[in-house]
Design a protein that fits this description.
Two copies of one chain form a homodimer. By secondary structure, chain A is α/β, with parallel strands linked by helices. The first copy, chain A, has two domains: 172 residues, Rossmann fold (3-Layer(aba) Sandwich); 120 residues, 6-phosphogluconate dehydrogenase C-terminal fold (Orthogonal Bundle). The first copy, chain A, has twelve helices and nine strands. A six-stranded parallel β-sheet of chain A has the order 3-2-1-4-5-6. In chain A, helix 4 packs parallel to helix 5, helix 7 packs across helix 9 and helix 7 packs across helix 11. The radius of gyration of chain A is 22 Å and the shape is elongated. At the A-B interface, strand 9, helix 7, helix 8, helix 9 and helix 10 of A face strand 9, helix 7, helix 8, helix 9 and helix 10 of B.
């Protein structure tokens, strides 16, 4: 192993993101020691079976001892409690980071517990799938995705640079901004889209005039894409909405206002208003593909699912 | 060629669906003659270059002459005018069908023009991508997807059976229901999901606090899936909303009611309500995958997009 980026990294929490970081560290030789800690004994055992680290502990304080970098990958609602639990064991000068999808409330929850001698650099890799747990991780998760850093002003430049280097080594692109701006950007590109996906799937499940069986059967045209998003981890997403309340409610207000106006255009048969919007949105999709943020293949290039046996043609 | 299903099929309109039908007919030998008609001279020429038929005509009446099956694949708002244009040229006993995403208004628009001696069997293949035009078609588009038939009561059983057979030959599964029920089912599984995707992409484009550049850059987490749906053909979708107004407004009312309640749960930090909904919606995703309506692969199995040159790490 050539000189690794960090001597020892502690990963607290080992779900989809934590295990993907662990696989990157292992495969790319980014640290000599990787200590893993997670609350559940079964998950910790599974992490060991998957060889995700070099040491394993239920107590996060034990894992962070001597670590040069500590990364929390826990639901954002748990960040404060973990910070408190590890505070006294942190090595002076260590970089403390996280991967939470909300930054303002994570900073507010963790900061009071952290000693002055550590460098607190909250981070958010904008990457994920609808799956969770230590088995869900994979090497390419961060490839060409953005990781946003929101360092607190007392963090050293070197700490920020080192953490950025780690994320680039995982394949990510790195951007720095304030926690507040991060939370607003994420509300529109992620949180509110998830909320309306959860909502439409819930609405469909509750209809009396169309059976749930029919919804599932004929889901191919639009709806099934929402169900993928609405299959994301419930605990993680509950915490996101509770912790990014202001930005989510602000964007949601805009969304509802726009939807009301669209509803009115339909009611009054204003075809031009609909056509204009649909043309504008098509151009945005083009920009996203051109920016390398999504595949240009139709239907995301997904292959037709296997033929299922319970519902053959003609039934 | 063994005995084909139909001697002559006329395809009026040759976009994504029309060209996919044409490719199926050609590759699977489902008709001896395929007459293609479309309004635009350039598109007709392109269809000929792609060898999608055996004859080509700008005048739809010329195309339908002697056809045993006529399929309209035009925006639903154009169905009535096309029916009027072909009415006098239709062969007695011919099956007349379409592929429109709305059925009630298509029946209302076409039926008054059609002579009593034809069999009118409206149809809707629930398949598509966000792309359009004669180059977008492909053989597997209907594979394992549902096609819904909504025959008018005067259509013969044989006509319905023959059309069902054609769709099965294209790989589809076939279901029959009333036009009214079709329109309600589609409003929830397709039309309203499209509308809210268009809406959120529009909302994002109009924010002042987050730049459009940022929206595009950080679109990876949820939002980009909506942009794919919101990139669908503007003319087609304008017509769908104008022609399925009642069902769309009804479902939209439900959606907004549910969203208001979700908004309230966030405002009052009702984590249990959020968690319960997110758990229910996750189960629905599982059912859709189990029903063979979507791939189980994370992120639809899409591959990471290529690295783009204009925005490298560190910029």
């Amino acid at each position: 192993m050539s000189e690794p980026l960090f001597e020892k990294i502690a990963l607290i929490g080992i779900g989809l993101i934590g295990s993907s970081i662990a696989i990157n560290i292992r495969e790319r030789g980014l640290a000599r020691h990787v200590a893993i800690s997670t609350r559940s004994e079964a998950t910790l055992k599974r992490a060991e079976e998957l060889r995700l680290g070099t040491s394993y502990a239920l107590d996060p304080a034990e894992a962070v001892r001597d670590a040069d970098l500590v990364i929390l990958s826990v639901p954002v609602g748990a960040s404060g409690a973990v910070a408190k639990a590890i505070a006294l064991a942190l090595k002076p000068g260590a970089v403390v980071s996280d991967v939470g999808s909300v930054k303002g409330s994570v900073v507010a929850a963790m900061r009071p517990h952290l000693p002055d001698h550590v460098n607190f650099v909250p981070a958010h890799p904008i990457a994920g799938t609808e799956q969770s747990g230590p088995d869900a991780g994979f090497l390419e998760l961060f490839e060409n995705r953005w990781t946003i850093l929101t360092p607190v002003e007392s963090a050293s430049e070197k700490a920020v640079a080192d953490l950025a280097e780690l994320w680039r080594a995982c394949g990510a692109r790195v951007e720095t901004m304030t926690a507040e701006h991060h939370d607003l950007v994420l509300a529109i590109v992620s949180h509110v889209p998830h909320l309306i996906a959860y909502n439409i799937v819930g609405t469909a499940a509750d209809l009396e005039t169309v059976t749930q069986q029919e919804v599932i059967k004929f889901s191919a045209s639009g709806f099934r894409d929402f169900t993928r998003i609405a299959a994301s981890d419930p605990t993680m997403w509950r915490d996101i909405f509770l912790n990014n309340k202001d930005a989510v409610l602000e964007i949601l207000g805009r969304f509802s206002e726009d939807l009301a106006s669209l509803q009115r255009a339909i009611r009054w048969s204003d075809g031009d208003a609909l056509f204009d919007l649909f043309t504008r949105t098509r151009a945005i999709r083009r920009s996203i593909v051109e920016a390398g943020q999504d595949t240009a293949e139709p239907n995301f290039g997904r292959r037709p699912p296997r033929k299922d046996p319970w519902n053959e043609p003609g039934e």
